[in-house]
Every structure is written in structure tokens, then in C-alpha cells.
Description:
By secondary structure, this protein is mainly alpha-helical. It has 4 helices and no strands. About 90% of the residues lie in helices and about 0% in strands. Helix 2 packs antiparallel against helix 3 and helix 3 packs antiparallel against helix 4. The protein is elongated and about 95 Å long.
Amino acid sequence: MLSYVQSGFLIGVALMISMVTVMVLNRIWPIPKRKLINEVTGWQLGILGTTYGVILGFMLYTVWNDFRMAEINTNLESASLVTVSRIGAGLPSQQREAFHALGLKYAEVAIHDEWPAMQVQQDSHASQIVLGEMWKLLAEVEGRRWWEQQC
């Protein structure tokens, strides 16, 4: 992904190239000689411009929709983390503290590892490791409860 400076430079270069192309075209092929051709091709360029506008509109809709979905997923993930943290309050004190620490670790990993990785379009599986630790802790607690009930 390009930085803002690189993107701005690219746009500036494209504008300069287009301006030079128009100046060269006006020198080689003067406007009065193009007038007849412009009348013939004007409606074709209108159709082409309309088609481009429709395609651009669909692209903008898709990008906006993807942004909204990412925002919704972020809100759902944070709400799920709060819910899991509240559920962890029912664990015995030692496991509750460990579970709470894992919840904080998950949030830290999501913010500091996964989001920067997504920004450069890379995968980060750091949160899955923390989730595995959370499931392992819950399985140990449930296994102890089951064992205590059997004995």
C-alpha cells in the first residue's frame, strides 16, 4: 500500500503527463480540424462516461459496505470479549484471574499485532494462540469439576 506522499506524487505525475499530452495533441492536431470528429464521437464519450460513473458508484458502494462490515465485526469482537470476561467471573478465583489476564492479553494482541498486520494485508494468528490458551484454561476447570463430581 502506498503512503499518502507516494499516492500524491503519483497523481501529480499523472496530471502532468495528461497536460503535456493535451498540449502536444493541440499542437499536432488543432481544435478546428477535430471539430467534425468531436461531433460524431461526443455521444459515444457520453455513454462511456455514464458507464464509468455507474462502475465507480458500484465500487464506492462495495468499499463503503466493506468498511461498515469491518466496523461491525470490530464491535462484535469487542462485545464478545466483554461477554467472555463476564462469564469468566464465575470461575474459581485463581482461574478467574488467569482468565481475566488472558482476556487482556487477547485485546492487546488484537490491537498491537493483528490490526497493524491487517493494515499491510498480512495474516496474524496471535489471537488464535491466546484463544487456545483460554479454551485450555476452561477445559481444565470443567475437567476438575467433572472429576470432583465423580469422586
